[in-house]
Structure formats: structure tokens, C-alpha cells
Amino acid sequence: MDNSKPSKDLFVPVDLKDSESERLTRPSLSFWQDSFNRLRKNFGAMAGIVVLLILILMAIFGPYMNKFDPYSQNLDHSFIPPKVPVLENIGWLGLDGVETAIIEGETVESAMTTVKLRMGPENAEFVETRVISEGGNGEPAKIEAKLDIYKAKNIETSYWFGTDSLGRDLWTRTWHGTRISLYIAFLAATIDMVIGVIYGGVSAYYGGRVDNYMQRVIEILVGIPNLVVVILMILIMDPGILSITIALTITGWISMARIIRGQVLKLKNQEFVLASQTLGAPDNRILKKHLIPNVTGLIVINTMFTIPSAIFFEAFLSFIGLGLPTPTASLGTLIDDGFNSLQTNPHVLIYPAIIISLIMVAFNVVADGLRDAFDPKMRE
Amino acid sequence: MEKLLQVNNLKVSFDTYGGEVQAVRGVNFEVNKGETLAIVGESGSGKSVTTKALMRLIPQPPGRIKEGEILFEGKDLAKYSEKQMQKIRGKDISMIFQDPMTSLNPTMKIGNQIMEGLVKHQKMSKSQAKKRAIELMELVGLPDAANRVNQYPHQFSGGQRQRVVVAIALACNPKLLIADEPTTALDVTIQAQILELMKDIQKKTDSAIIFITHDLGVVANVADRVAVMYAGKIVEIGTVDEIFYNPKHPYTWGLLGSMPSLDSADDELYAIPGTPPDLLNPPKGDAFAARNEYAMKIDMEQEPPMFKVSDTHYAATWLLHENAPDIAPPPAIQRRMEKMSRDVQYQTKGDRP
Amino acid sequence: MARYIFQRVLYMFLTLVLIATFSFFLMKMLPGTPLTMEDKLSETQKEIILEKYGLDDPVPIQYLKYMAGLAQGDLGISFQFDNREVTDIILSRIGPSMQLGAQALLIGTALGMLLGLISAIYHNGFLDYSSTFVAVIGKSIPSFIFAGLLQYYVGLKLGWFPVALWGTWEHTVLPTIALAMFPIAIAARFMRTEMLEVLGSDFIQTARAKGVNKFGVVFKHGVRNALIPLVTVMGPLAISLMTGTLVIEKIFAVPGIGEQFVISITTNDFPIIMGTTLFFSFFFVFIILVIDLLYGIIDPRIRLAEGEK
Questions:
Q1: Does residue B342 share a domain with residue B255?
Q2: DSSP letters spanning A255-270
Q3: Which of A100, C117, C128, C240 is least enclosed by beta carbons within 10 angstroms?
Q4: How many CA atoms lie within 13 A of A225 on its CB side?
Q5: Are residues A25 and B18, on separate chains, in Cβ contact within 8 Å?
Q6: Is B60 in CB contact (< 8 Å) with chain C?
């Protein structure tokens, strides 16, 4: 820069418009736009949203994607391993409809006998065997046995996720179960939200004695472990979608109520609300302009955390024998079922387990992302 | 006078989501042994960042020293490793922070917090350090020190805590003490006590002090020289008399004009219009131009260099250029400056040789 | 402080009495009695059985007897196991459950704290992202899924540890890992946030300005201040482990309270179900109380504030 000899005509005063000095240098964004921008930059959360959308679509349409019915049994086709057209050629995926087992025995002959028993004598001609080790010297003999059940039983169609002990198609059952689990979770989360927001909001908004009594009630309820409440409720009601949902909501709304109460109390005493009151804003304006927008984010985040915990509890109840009655499928009952045949037919467990894990991780990641996005402290 | 610290063309930036925020944009100044330099400026002008950069306490990332030298006793601290800096911090240079309520570790006894530096830098034993800690607490005017060394910060009042912070900073007789708005968070009466304490201690230990503040009253009280910062740059630097009696930069005029005094109760306070520029995209030309009622065309296009007013007094404004029209500070500010200069003379008499 | 403890203990008893009352009347509403299965008994036989279970009195008397029994630690008699007291059954099975829970809690929080610490120190670095990933997985995926994976791959395929049952320490490895995933995740996340907040606070800057090195800053000044709030999540964690043991014990056939509980649900053994839920409730309330008091002891600010009252 040539600072030494600036030309003379530059040394004339300029007229500054007022707007110049007061001009805001950044575009103004509404709270929601700003939050959304931040959420969009969060890779994990966006991936979570995509995964959730896919899973929800599959829960809706998945059961209609093949010709099977979630309840119809075919005992002849029990424990068929999964087979997916195209993907069957990728060996390590295990989607080729071939049951593989490594059988040990004292000698090769005795191992062969075990193979026969394991794979079923009627399938003997379809079993391919390969001797891995001859055994001897205290070492057992090892045989790898492969059976293409689809060939053995002459099954034309493919069971994409395989079948269970009663020969029901697991693809249909899994997506059906996902639908029911999601349904229970959304319902429970909605009820929790409604009760919690009303309870917390009323308690904080009216304050004083009302708040005092309402908080005593909460204090006692919080002391009761929700595990106990849920189990007791299920015991007296017959297990079913509705009773499980009710059991989940009996204690579920408390955390929402506490969060809402805390936030409203905090907001009520904040300067911008006091300022608004001083300027003569009526109650419903304060509610609409200040309280609701500042609480909405919290409600959304908390609900996003409630949903996976409801899914977990549903599965948990199924697991301890208090879940949906047979033959209804939910992710919980499917997983419980899967454990019964984990040693011989792990495919029964693996797909519902993957889906429940995906749902849980996705909801948690999205909820985390939303929390970060809504947190105005991060605003830069 | 012997130079203790010389800062050359220091630039500090923060990398944020929005881009590079240039918090400090080329700062030059020096501090002599035993003197007090005040850095004044509004919030966000880069005064805190500058001093934190001196101690290399800028969190990295997002912050980084982009350019420049920090010559402390001739050695460039900007090139020091973290290990080397740890030997300087607390020993040669130490720092007093703004908020005494949060600058002490809440779960550590006061005594241990004072002793920490002593044990580290002066290789004292625990008992020696404790003895010295009690002495320091007495030096900074905390009564009943022998008992209070074992107390926790929450058992002290705000003013007392700031005394503790001062004691921690003084523990190893630093050559340079950086005080980052040490009185802002305190009551006015306590402010005066802490200022007196610091002046007192400077007399005893002969440390140099860099005093950051936005309170010009405090500046008049403690400083030998003053640097005025705006938008990450020093816009005017001079002795306290030169800045108060003969300010040259329009921003300094604004600062002085916005300072209330008792006998100017009838006058309207002068307020600098507008807000400081966004350092994410610093404006072209003089950063102050948009708020400067004396702005000229050249202010919009070129950054002003430092013009020399006297051997000790420099200002970065095109108004000092030979081609610039002769502009005197606005009459209201002139009047206030005259009044204040009488006050300042009165206030500082006896404090300065 | 004494008044505070007294108040808390009082609240605890109130909650327990409420839970006990609530479960007693729920039990009365339940469809099953010891007689449902045995229609062919004569009237006298039925009377004898009803008397044995204290079911011949009017309900209010039954309630008082039940509460009096509770006060003495008597949880009634099991339907399923003749003449065995519920208290005995629970006590005989408490060992494995406690061992599993304690191992998972200790190992889990220790590992989690380490992960969280690493995350905070290398904030936004590769290690941070990796440990955050582990934490998200551990927090989201239910323990029974981990249990299934461990059982199938580590137990069955690799054969490193026993697939199920109880006995040597090797038997505890897989269930402990499955159970510890949640505490690891929670402790890691919590430690990370707390540590980041502490490391960003003013007193850390003071410590750095004193010339304290990185190790000193993190461990002497940071960890201690981050640990205090961590105590508050220990309670909820211990309780979530309680839920976890129910399924984990079932999967790994561990002879603990949880396994018995699940069996009792399938056999409609209500005295055991009620007894176990009451036992869980007591445990829950007790843990919350202990954590509360512990918090007061650890934090000098609370300790003194209470003491000065």
C-alpha cells in the first residue's frame, strides 16, 4: 500500500449516513432457521434422520414386499436360513440360504454321524462335507458341513430373513414387529409429552401453592422405580399394545414435567419476559411469544429421547415374559424368540437385533444433534 | 529506561465456523521495566486477546498467533514451546483475571493455590511454601492469614478473593504483571482498595504492569502510559498526560467524551455512534471510519499509518496527515477535556514524580 | 446436616410405605391365587392353604399383617417353592446379582471416565470422535443385544469364555461386559461434558497462568472438579444396572435375583414378584439417599453450607 503519498483529493470529509454505522453485518436468522442450519451441518444427525426415515418406510411397506403373512405357519419350512437373490453371491454376508456348521467328533466317522443328525437324515444327499482335521492325538476331528436347504426342500421362493421355528417368514414378521414397536413408542412418547407439558406448565405457570402440591406428588412418584411400576401394571392388566403403552406412560411423563417446569420457571423470571410484562403484554402474548417458542425445542429433544427408551422397555418386557402375547410380533418378542435358538439358528436373532440397534442409535444421534442445534449458547 | 517487553506486529486470529476472526490485527508496543501501561478500549477491541497472547494462553485451536514477535527480555515468546512457556508463566510473567468469583479453583484450599507456583518455580518445600503463602496473604492485606490458608474460596468475599488472586500472581516476584480488568467485577469501594494494593506492591517489587481496562478513571489513577485499542489495533499510544490532555485520534476523543464527571452534570454525555466492526470481515480502510464523524474519503480506502505526534505519542488517523484539513475536537469534548485535565492533574498529583 | 439426613430418611420411608401399600392392593386385584391351579381340592384343604398364606382374613387385617411382616423383613411365602420364605430366596440369590452389578458399575464407570477424559483432552480430535462413537453405541444399544453378540461370537464361536452359568470368574466375564456397556457410555459422555466445562473455566486459566503443566491442569485442577457432578449419575446408573441384571441373568443363566424374578413371572409366583419389586424399590431409594449424602460430603461448598446452618 502506498501510504506515503495519498492523493490530496482523498482528504475531503464524507457524509456518513446513520444507517452505515448501525448496519448489522450478518443476516438475521430466525431461531428455527438458525437451528436447522446447524442441524444440517451435523453429519451424524442427518445420517440418523435418513436411517429413521428408511426404517419407518420399511415398517410401513416392508410386510407387503413379499407374499408371506406374518402369522401363517409352515412347519415344513421351519428354520430356513436367509436367502436374498443377488446378494446370495457375496459369501461372507451369509445370505445364500446355505446352512454351515463345523462339527467336532472323536473320529471322522462319529463326526459324520453327528452331521447327519444335525442336518436331518432326509437331507443327507444334499449335505456337502469337508474334513478340516482328521483328529487323533487327543485332538477332535473337525468337519465342515454345508446344506443348501432351499435345494433339499425344493423351495422356489427366497425367505429374505429366513424363517423361525414355526416356519413363519421373518422378513414380514420383522417389519411388522418394527411397526408395532414404533407404534407403541410413538404413542407412549406422545402421551408422555402431553401429560408432562401440561403438568409441568401448569405447575410452573401458576406457581405458589399449586406448584408446591404438584411438586410433592412428583417427588413421591420419582422415588418409585419405573421398573417396578411398569411390571406391576403389566401384571394386573393383560399384556397388549395398549396396556404396555399405559404402563410405560405412568411414570414416563415425570421427566418431561420436571424439565418443562424448570424451563418455564427460569423463563418467567428472565428479563425479557419481565420487560414484556412491564410493557403491558397480556398473558397469552407472553405465552405465545416467549414461553412456547423457548420451550418447544426442549419438548422436541426430550420426546426424541423418550421414544428409544420406550422401544427399549417394550423389548425388555417381552424379554422377561411380560411382553405382547403370541403370535403378535414386536421387536422385543422377536429378539426373545431369537435367543431360544441362538446356538443353532442365529439368523432368527440377528435381524431384529440389527433393526432395534439401528433405531436406538439413530434416535439418540438425532436427539443429540437437535440438542446441539437448539442450544443457543453455541450460536456464533 | 530499560525495555522489558517489545511486541512487534502481533496478529492473532480465531478460526470459527464462519471463517477467520482477526481479533488482533498487527499490534506494536513496548513496556519498560517498572512502568505501568494501560490498554483501553471497548469490549471486543482485542485488548484481552493481546495480553493472553503474550502469555500464550490463547486456546489453540481455535486461536493462533498468526504473525509477530513477543520479545520478552530479548527472547521471542511467540516461538517458545509450551514446555518453555510453563517456566515463564507465573515466574516472569503472571496474570490477574477479571472475575475473582470464578478464577479460583473451588475445590482447592486457598493456601495450596498460592503455593502451587512457589513449589513449581522456586523449588520450595511444602512447609516453606506455606510460610511464604501466609506472608503473601498478609502482604495483600488478608487478615488472620495463618488460619485462612486452609479455607476454600467460597469462604472469602469477592474483594478478598481478588486479593488472593493478586497474591497468586505475585508469588514468584514476576517482572511483568498483566492485570486483565482486575477491578471490573468489584464494588467501587473494593475497586479502590485493589488499585491501591497494586500500586503499593509495584512500589515494593518494581514489577512492570500491563493494565487492561475500559475505565478511564482507573487509567488516570494507575497508568504511566496508555494504549488505546480499537478493532484489534492500537489507534493511539502515549503517556497518560498526552492521551488525556492532547488526544489526537477521534476514537480517543469519543472515549474521553463519553466519560462522565461530577461537574459536567449539565452537559450531555457524548456517545460514539454505531457498533464496532465485525472482525470476521474487517472493513477496508480505517476500521473506525464508519463511526467517525470526521471521516474522510481516504479513511474508506486506506488504513492510516501511525503518525508521530511526539517521541512518546503516536496516533493512527489520517487527520494527522499534512494534507488533512485542520480539525479540532468538537467543542463539547474540548470543554470536557479541559475540565477533566484539571481533575486529572488534581487526582494524580503526588502519585507521579 | 443431621436435620437434613433425618428429613431425607423420613421421605425415604414414606416412599417405601407407599410402594408397599400400592403393591399390596395391586396383588389383591390380581387374578391368580395359589388355588387357581388346584380345583380338585376339598374345602378343608383349601382352607388350610388359605390360612397358610394368610388369605383367610379380611383384606384390612391382611394389609396390617403384611405391613407388620415387612417391618420385620418378612416378605411372605413363595407359592412355587413350598414353605420357602421369599426373604430367604432373595437372600440366597443376592450374591451373584451384587457381584455382577458391582463389577459392571466399577469397571464401567472407570473405563467410561477414562474415555471421557481422553475425549475432553483431545477435544474434536480423532480420539474424541472415536470415544464419542463408542459412547453413542453403548448408550443406545440395549444390553441384551450385546449379551447375544458376546454369547454367540465370543462364547460360542471363539470359545474364549463360558457361554452361560455361574461358578468361576470366567463365568462373570461376558455378563459383566454386556452389563458394563451402559455405564461406560454414560460415564464417558458425562465426564466429557463436565471436563470440557471445567477446562474452559476461569480457574483453569489461573492455573495455567501459574505455569502448571498440562498434567497438573487436567488431573489436579480438572478431574477433581469434574468428578463431583459425576457422583450424581452414579445413582441412576446403579438403578439401570438393576434393570439390566434381569435380562442379563436370564440370558447367561446366572443364579441371581433377576433370573428368579423372570422365572416367577412365568409361574405367577406373586409373593416372589412382589417381594423382589419391594426389594428393588428399597435398593433404589437407598442408593438415591446414599448418593445424595455422598455428594454433600465430597463437595466442600455443600459440606460447609450445610455445616453453617
A1: yes
A2: HHHHHHHHHHHHHHTS
A3: A100
A4: 27
A5: no
A6: no
